[in-house]
# Entry
Amino acid sequence: MAKESYPDELRYHPEHDWARVEGAEATFGVTWYAQDALGEVVFYEPPEVGSQAVKDQAYAEVESVKAVSDVYAPLSGEIVAVNDLVADKPELINEDPYDEGWLVRVKLSDPSEADELLDADAYRKLLEDE
# Structure
């Protein structure tokens, strides 16, 4: 299991998802908090490449020993890559949620949406208030 962390270079969605924005594309995944709350992840159903992710809407599902949970898109755009390794080894979400456990890459339809996401300090404060 990964050590608790919230990297400063990422942007965070209140539903406990992160985005690593790189120009007109972004990588999405779930935060350390989300994977910890889920418990041991046993299944990841990736979306189809070419499908659309819509900000604030579910784009995938993860299943843990506790529950099935939706994964919410922090930003909108076309899914251009999925992490097939996580589909085969869903425990990577628990072991390395920010690197090997990433879920999808998205070509952003509106990069300015990233301005609405939380920075690491604001996300930590959200967690303290929950």
Remarks:
- The beta strands are 11-13, 17-22, 25-30, 41-45, 52-53, 58-64, 68-72, 77-82, 104-108.
- The mean pLDDT is 96.
